Amino acid sequence: MNPYLSGEGADGLAAQRAYLEANNGIRGLEILEPRDVAHAAELFRRDGFVVIAQALDSAQVEFLAKGCQEVADEILDLDTDRRGNRGSHRYSFGGSSLTRSQLHRPEWRMLLENALVNEVVTAIFQSPDFVLRAASGDFCLPGAIGYQPLHSDIRDWKDNATTPFSAFHDPRGQLTIRDLPCPYVCANFLPQEVTRLNGPTRQIPGTQNSRHPIPTLEQEPEWMRLSTVCPAPAGAVMIRDVRAWHGGTPNLSDAMRAIPNLEFYAPWFREPIVPGISYEDYRTLSEPAQKRVRHCVLDSSETLVTGPTLRAP
């Protein structure tokens, strides 16, 4: 039994911190080396996620961390009470941008050129013809002491009002998006170490194809609360099937935890995409990166309007 659930104040937080230090983290979590591309694809298909070290070098980690902090500072200026837009003290980088993306930032564009991620995603889809959906991610602050409910980042289309960004629909009612091969991959980069205390993502292995109802926080068993992807080193990347059940956890550290991302659609899958990169910035990318972002680029005659917001349009 988790001893801190009924705790309050400093004593409750101290008990929570000690409990997570002792118990948090997926037992036997594999952190792969960059050379393990084939094994990475195998683990991804089995578990719905995989973690690979050394995706970024130290200079790239520093550059990305600085960019994440700058973006976070702009967002936090709009939210002095730290109510967040993904729960208290939790924020989406995309959900806090007028373009629903951070592609206008050079730090996120750098990630598009990452050879390791492109190789692993190619192995997952068994094709290099995947395309970018958005460049986003999230961050949580010290003070995020609660759990975010488990959820999935994609669902079947219902109607344009309730599911405006969804596409898959079987009018026969026989198939759901969970019955398909993976349609949508998210690559979360780690610009800092992820520890047992700074808000590691919890992932429930093997749930990417599950049709079972996702449990609420009240229903969730304790092993799921502790099924977190940690410890993981700075510079690593976590590549996820977005259908797998996942959620945020308490950040009891003294620093922000950020996991900026790139989101990719399979070659055969599309959902509505919001333009997130100007034609001028698009032209600075390599040819392979240009091919992947071709659905995200604004027309050369238009001006990309960027800026922070707490509620992306």
Structural commentary:
- There is one protein chain.
- It contains 8 helices and 10 strands.
- The chain has 313 residues and is α+β, with helices and mostly antiparallel strands.
- Strands 1, 2, 3, 4, 5, 6, 8 and 10 form an 8-stranded mixed beta sheet that branches. A two-stranded antiparallel ribbon has the order 7-9.
- Helix 2 links the parallel strand 1 and strand 2.
- The longest helix has 19 residues, at 58-76.
- The radius of gyration is 19 Å and the shape is globular.
Residue-averaged pLDDT, rounded? 96
Enumerate the spans where pLDDT stays under 50 for 5 or more consecutive residues. Answer: 1-7
**In whole angstroms, how far apart are the ends?**
42 Å
Q: Tally of extended strands?
A: 10
Task: Return the string of H and E elements.
Answer: HEHEHEHHEEEEHEEEHH
Give me the number of helical elements: 8
Q: What is the alpha-carbon Rg in Å?
A: 19 Å
**How much of the residues is beta strand, in percent?**
5-15%
What share of the residues lie within helices?
A: 10-25%
| Anisotropy-based shape | globular
What profile does the largest beta sheet have?
Answer: 8 strands, mixed
Oligomeric status: single chain
Q: What structural class do helix, strand and pairing data support?
A: alpha+beta
